[in-house]
Structure formats: structure tokens, C-alpha cells
# Entry
Amino acid sequence: MAERPFTQADLDVLKQWDTPTICNGLEITNPERRAIGFNIRPLVVLDPKAPPIVGLARTGTICAREPARGKVADRVAWYNYVAATDFPTIAVLQDIDDQPGYGAFWGEVQSTVHKALGAVGCVTNGCYRDIDAWAPGFQMLGGMINPSHAHVHMVEFGQPVNVHGMMAAHDDVIHADRHGAVVIPAEAVRKLPAAIDLLSRREKVILDICRDPGFTPAKLADALRRSGEIH
# Structure
């Protein structure tokens, strides 16, 4: 397995924060990524009450509107790819149809299979179905819910993909919850807790003033100066 600048314990720490908080922390650890690395269009979340998921990206492309033309990706090879790591994985699939979501790759069977392979969820601009028969604990952030497979098939896997504006590559660390998903650079994983702690302390100065019965605009202005005007 590849050497990584983080452990499973480091990834587990990141589950305590929602995805917007992770994005805030990345503004400190990786300011150059302030406007990239996350979805910029809404995703339909299977279980909005589920805790955040964190895992390594397993990327692929799918399409469904027409039958496959030429060679398609081997499904068993994809399954082996998903399972080939000691870390939890998150499938990140780009639907490359002109009208994404024409047919569902994801449903009862694929959610169950991928959960067994060690995946904790999926982020896709494509669709999913079988929401009442879904594998428990396997999270889904998809472009829409649709009833049919149509001609869905995997085109290729392992290459960079774009899911609603989030560019992701093989082995990228993905953090996702009901708000959306974001790519965490590997070197930022261990830096994020300290960055989030700093931001939380700065935010608390503002929030405490706004919740104080003695609030005034002047006190808010002072709090903003002391917090560094983080927002």
C-alpha cells in the first residue's frame, strides 16, 4: 500500500465536523483552494441525518442513455479497485451522458456490494434508486433519484472526474455530508484540526456578542476586529 501522510485515526478525527467546517479549515491550510475542490451544484442526499463520511476516492465514469459502444470497464475489476486499500473508500462517479441521471447505476445491489467492499458512500452527478432497500449505513450524494437502469454501464475508472464542479482523482481524501462534498489535500489532513480550532475560537467571539442581551453594533464591530473578520 502507498505511504500516506495520515492514518485512519487522522481521518476518523475529521468525522466530528460537518463539510462546511472542513471547507472553512481548508481556507487556512490551503488558501489556494478556497474556490475549488467542492461541488458547486446541489446533490440529493440519501440520509441527511447521517454523520459525515471520510474516505479515499475511487473514481469512474458511467453513462446510461444508450447501449455501450465498444469496450466497457470490467465490473469485477472495478470492484477489486474499490477494495484495494486499507482505508474506507468513497465512490466518486461522473455521469458523462449529455443528460446525466438517465439511468441508475446505484440501488439496492450496488449499495450492498460496495458496502461489503469497504466503501462508505458515493458522490455522483448521476442518479440512484431503491431508496427503501438501500444498504444501511452506506451514504449517497447523487444528482437525482430515478427509477430505471436504462443502459447504465461503467466506461472507465481510475481517472480524474468532475462531479458537479468537484474535481477528484484516485486516492483523494473526500469528506461529505448533507451539505455536499469536498476534496481534502493529503497534506492538510493533520493540519485541519488546529485550523478548525482557530476558526472556532474566532467565530465564538462574534457569536457570543450577537447572543448577548447587551448587544450593540459597536460591540459587533469590536468583535469583528478581534476575530480578524473571518467571514
The chain has two domains: 8-186, 192-227. The chain has a mean pLDDT of 96. The helical segments are 8-14, 19-29, 75-83, 108-116, 192-211, 217-227.
